[in-house]
Amino acid sequence: MFINQEFQLFGSWFNIHFVENEGMAMGISWGGELGKYSLTLFRIVAIIVLMVYIHSLIKKKASMALLATMALILAGAMGNVLDSLFYGLVFSDSYGHVANFVPWGTGYRSFMQGHVVDMISIQLFRIPSWFPLYGGQKFFPFIFNVADAAISVGIVLLIIFQKNFFVEELPSSEEVLQNSKIFCIFIFGMIFPNLSKR
User: Which residue range is the domain that position 25 belongs to?
Assistant: First the structure.
């Protein structure tokens, strides 16, 4: 497929629509190449932190449901990062023609500058034309991929089942007071750094 090519999969409500997202959610991008490097590095750090957290959950013998939920988020994040890292290195661009595999490093983008491929478009209905500001527009105009869906489902499951996933003993009132004092000193030191050095 080439950029913006679309075909219907199930009626008119589920389409495959090929786009490439060079930024974050909803196509937001900033800072040109440097911004893209920063975004990709941030994603890599977030993946490493998530992997360390999942490892700690395994050691604590966390529930399989929590581990599966975190695995969904991790797998989705890794899928998008792999596109950002390598997609531009091994494919030609897709503007007006179908992309082709090319020799390593001769693609349309350099390392860490690749676009994330999005392809799923779901249009259950349009907003009624009488609705203020958004009348006549698609209800969900965004195009996403399987990795985005995995992240979204994982986050929704975490929100819905957070009380089941994160059951911990409540700290004593003394621990709360001590932690509050430490937190206040830290914030005071951040806001007034010169005063904290005296």
Answer: 6-167
